[in-house]
Amino acid sequence: MSLLEVKQVNHSYDSKKLFKWKNQSNKILIDISFVIEEGTCLGLIGTSGAGKSTLGKVILGIQPPQEGQVLFQGNDIYKADKLTRLKLRRDLQVVFQDSYSSVNPRMTAEQIISEPLENYEKLTVGEQRRRVIELLERVGLNENDLKKFPHQFSGGQLQRINIARAIALKPKLIVLDESVSSLDMVTQSLILQLLSELKDDFGLSYLFITHDIKAAFSISDQIGVLEKGELIELYDSKDQFFSSKHPIVKQLRDSILAEHPRFRTLTTKAN
Ligand SMILES: Nc1ncnc2c1ncn2[C@@H]1O[C@H](COP(=O)(O)OP(=O)(O)OP(=O)(O)O)[C@@H](O)[C@H]1O
Ligand SMILES: [Mg+2]
What we know:
By secondary structure, this protein is α/β, with parallel strands linked by helices. Helix content is about 35%, strand content about 20%.
């Protein structure tokens, strides 16, 4: 059984048009189907407005699709009973792009990371602190950071705290929605390295949403291209992606090649 199975999901935000579904033009997700196996990462790339975050929300159980199913370990997340939903909330976590707005500015790092533990596990004060310190260390921070507030961290450090909070309950799947996009290149690559290690250590699975193809390739086992709500192709390897004849993929490919000086064409000639 796959960890996550998305089956023919269709979605539009305009509920009034629900009954005109087949003809409406404002579809956000169109017939999306794919699976994510345990311990693997699906990178989802696509231009702005393609529907990536909407798909992430559908998978997280916070945006019921108008058609189709999301099965997590075989259970339809939108039809699950209360107990299963509670377990699903533990197993499915999310890390967003903006590390600062993802946390309460009045909470210390310890309080931020403790929140899921308090909600789900009955630990003593000492046990909880030990768990928080372990988590801080796991993401490259330490005990001295316990009492610091969000404004005392850099964006990269705060994203590490968001990651520590996301892994606190040992989830099965994390939706990473542009989680490294606002970080500088060096910090971005350190966080990607951390995410890869966590994936291997805990057998974690990711849906890695990004518009950055290079970041996607550095962590993903499979790459999906979403364009105007359609999952146009899925690739198991870089080679498959680079040899695709699909015009949208060609455009995406050209956009990264154009960044490389060797592939840049001169538009102005010297006089
Ligand atoms: N809550 C909402 N209500 C109505 N329309 C929405 C809502 N959220 C998103 N949309 C629309 O759905 C479309 C897809 O948005 P979405 O945020 O999923 O795109 P995205 O691929 O994540 O884009 P980006 O790369 O810019 O984050 C957009 O046209 C957006 O305006
Ligand atoms: Mg988005």
